[in-house]
Amino acid sequence: MAKKAHKEMSFMEHLEELRWVLVRCSLATVIMAFATYMVNDFLFNTVIFGPTKAEFVTYRFFCDASKYLGIAENICITDLDFKIQNTSMEGQINTFIWICITAGFILAFPYIIYQFWNFISPALYEKERKSAKAFIIVSSLLFFLGVLFGYFVIIPMTINFVSTFQISTAVVNEFNLESYISMIKSSVLVSGLFFELPVIIYFLTKLGLITVAFLRKYRRYAIVIVLIIAAIVTPPDVVSQVTVSIPMLLVFEASVIIAAVVEKRRLKA
Known about the structure:
This protein has 12 helices and 2 strands, in the order αααβααααβααααα. By secondary structure, the chain is mostly helical. The chain has a two-stranded parallel sheet.
């Protein structure tokens, strides 16, 4: 589609161009996955299993912050009493492969965004096509911010909560490797994609599929959903829930502001 921007394309030609976009995105992901393979010791021991250690940066930050603010010091973590075990023959091999692929996708995200922008750009006005660089930079920045938020906030709080929660002292926490890795992947990817909400709202508003009135009407429901998510992924204390919910609410409010600006310009045009 991007190569034939100045002439009409058939439906099958669009599909063929989309196929090549997906092929290039997959190839970029695989290449970056091989790059992460070269640093697999750092990837697993420091990044993936870092939140399982009491000295992880997030735990130390909240401990220091609680002492500084003079609130309960039991928020400080001295030990995470659980083990991660592998219960299947292919478990560690599958984990190795999928973590490398996930890391490859995250690192290749700017290129993936660039490919999809090239695919949709012929349908945009010339002025909009000129903003490609800004779109790629903003989308990538939001995605990486979401990934960092998921990794440094959501994952540590989830681990802290599930590792300390017990229905009985007779039950020992020994988590399955697959379950732990699934939580890691879903937390960072979902958080990264959630932070893309302003970009998604921008395009939906530009197409007239969403209005500011709609977003404002259902704002209260969005707030409730965010608070429920924060309550699920964090320990049952106000500080942790506020820490998770505020950035998510700010992302939603930023989306509303962007929608208002886009709708105003669209109606004026």
